[in-house]
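Tokens in:
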């Protein structure tokens, strides 16, 4: 619930709030670039026979797995030749696990050639902020508490809803935006968030 709150905090604010600060032009430009980047990634992954998504369900009897890819769901088949990484058996992969799947289309079906369970990224606890800590900072505002909050997701996601006071900084545009968005004073607290890791 706390993670969902952090992700969804600010849905009511959306991109309209940016127009009050005069940054809406930048958001529109970034949104176009973000959409193009996402489309390029999807095309490249499709050409490579690659899927990134979360496990929804497995049917050992049917030898199928249902994977959520963004808002879409895909059903893949697996067999005895399907290679597995970071799990003992396909049936033991926990629901909502992040997966990287190499596949090929065969006979109208999508056959998983290799299924990799992505390992969670562990950051030192001293470098993590709790939902409560971020909420307190946001309620006081960046001027009073000296922080910058950066949203690393695609800009269209940012526009659909973001944490109040956050600035859009898609991770692949970090080098282009760092001089504009990062504070000159390196003592200012920098908080980054995205849609999370598995």
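Residues out:
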């Amino acid at each position: 619930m706390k993670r969902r709150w952090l992700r969804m905090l600010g849905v009511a604010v959306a991109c309209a709030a940016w127009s009050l600060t005069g940054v809406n032009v930048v958001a529109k430009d970034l949104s176009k670039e973000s959409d193009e980047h996402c489309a390029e990634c999807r095309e490249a992954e499709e050409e490579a026979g690659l899927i990134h998504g979360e496990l929804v369900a497995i049917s050992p009897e049917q030898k199928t797995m249902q994977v959520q890819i963004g808002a879409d769901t895909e059903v893949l088949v697996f067999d005895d030749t399907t290679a597995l990484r970071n799990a003992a058996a396909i049936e033991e992969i926990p629901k909502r696990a992040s997966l990287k799947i190499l596949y090929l289309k065969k006979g109208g079906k999508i056959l998983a050639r290799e299924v990799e369970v992505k390992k969670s990224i562990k950051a030192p606890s001293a470098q993590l902020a709790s939902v409560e800590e971020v909420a307190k900072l946001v309620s006081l505002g960046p001027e009073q508490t000296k922080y910058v909050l950066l949203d690393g997701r695609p800009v269209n996601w940012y526009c659909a809803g973001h944490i109040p006071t956050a600035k859009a900084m898609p991770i692949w545009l970090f080098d282009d935006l760092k001089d504009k968005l990062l504070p000159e004073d390196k003592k200012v607290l920098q908080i980054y968030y995205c849609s999370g890791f598995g």
